[in-house]
Amino acid sequence: MFHRPTPEETVTTTVDVAIPCYRYGNFLRECVESVLSQENVDVRVLILDDCSPDNTAEVGKQLAAQDERIEFRRHAANQGHITTYNEGIEWASGDLFLLLSADDYLAPGALARASQLFKTNPEMSFVFGNAVLLSDDNVRQALEPFGSSFSAETAVLPCLDFVKAMRGQNIVPTPTAVVRTSAQKQVGGYCHALPHAGDMAMWLRLAAEGPAGFVNATQAVYRMHSQNMSRSYSSARLPDVQQRRAAIEHFLEHSAAKLPNAAPFQQILFQSLGRNAAYQASEAFNEGDMETSRRLAELAKELYPGVWHTSSWVRLLLNRTIGPRAWRLLRSALGAARVI
Predict the structure, then answer these.
(1) What is d(CA 118, CA 214) in angstroms, rounded to the nearest whole number?
(2) For residues 289 and 334, what is the distance between their CA atoms, to the nearest angstrom?
(3) Taking the mean position of all CA atoms in its chain, how far away is CA 311?
(4) Pairing state between β 154-157 and 126-135
(5) Which of 36, 250, 321, 323 has the fewest CB atoms inside 10 Å of its own CB, making it the most exposed?
(6) Going by C-beta distance under 8 Å and a sequence separation of 6 or more, which residues neighbour residue 266?
(7) CA–CA separation, 18 vs 46, rounded Å?
(8) Sign of the four-CA dihedral 50, 56, 57, 59
(9) Antiparallel, parallel or unpaired: β 42-49 and 70-74
């Protein structure tokens, strides 16, 4: 039987993609071209050059001159990434919105897959998916938020399920996060007080506006290189946990009224973060950073008073009892035993 397309099927989804760029002129063309080549969606691109000292302006102007779908703006002075992100959000007017760093790029079909999931689940606030981590030496590593054993093609997660899946940390590969623009406008921009965990706070707040969608496919390539600000910061264990705590507190402060009962969200998030703080305390101890380990352990107890029941805390106690060198030997022996 002939199928007459519904209005939703015939109208092409519009997607606005803001591309902040600071010193990433060498990556910019590949990033933009990955957006323009997306099929079955109508894209617009805004390149935001945050006063880069490299050739970003030259490349950006060339790209804008070559395609009317591209707009280029350059800041007269560097304004920082949060202000630049928020400028992109203010500019957006399409059905969907994506904030895509100039050093990352989209996989073929990414926007069409996200758009289709929105069409079948219009109540969703945002969609994310798998990514590929690409190192300086071109080594590729799969970044799969739900692991390789997850078999469903898509998933829709109500806010509480999304919070449970996060386990106190950011599980969303940022270049894969396509947001319903109306939800983004409702939530607003990124928080200047969260320069290193603003994305985690954003996904939590968006999830309070509507379910989060997941596409079980590679949606983007995320570059890992020496200039990544997030990479250098996340290796600092104590500040990283402190920023994630601030992100959770920001979410609870701004979104509690939209939750049926904020207590379970608070409990899950802080317990998960407490476990992770205990784990990070063990890692710091093994590295010989005793002061950071002590402070992380205190923070773990503050976040989750029952943390001493967890395996992360037991591991920390073992480390302290037998010392880091003996713990490394024990861990190696246990690993060898599992292989045998």
Answers:
(1) 10
(2) 24
(3) 27
(4) unpaired
(5) 321
(6) 248, 252
(7) 5
(8) negative
(9) parallel
